[in-house]
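Write out a sequence, fold above all:
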Amino acid sequence: MFFKILKLKPLINPTTIQSCKISSTSASITKVHRKTYARTYPTIVVLPNGSSINSRYHEPRQIIKLPLDLSTLTDAQRKARLEKRKPKQKIIVHEEVDDTFNSNRYINLIKK
């Protein structure tokens, strides 16, 4: 009655038990243990025909390029694409150096 007249809230009685609701979003000491996270990153998805779409992706990537379907290409275009995929062979050039140095020409410059 006294609290109602003064409009004061009563102090918490230490004998009462307070319950704590723990959810998946509350973490105070450790990390949140989830396999998938709610955070997504803005990315650009490039389609095989060259058009692009802005979307959100679970990993931080800027551009995702979708593969081209080789069955829709002509034979010449398909061969050109497959040649680009193969590793390029390194050209080894062996040069023969002519050694015309003669140490006998410089003997007179050596001090004894």
